[in-house]
Amino acid sequence: MPPFLYLKRSRRLFRAAPPTESVIPTTDSAAYEIFPDFRWVYNKLTIAELQGIASGPHGTQPPLNLYPIFSKPIYNLGGMSANARHIATPMDYLHSLTPGHMWSACLQGEHYSTDIAVVQGQAIWLSHTRGLPGPKLTWDYWEVNVSAPADLNQAITNFIETYLKTYTGMLNIETIGNKIIEVHLRFSPQWPDLYGERFLSSLVALYSAGEWMG
Question: From what superkingdom does this record's organism come (predicted)?
Answer without folding.
Answer: Eukaryota
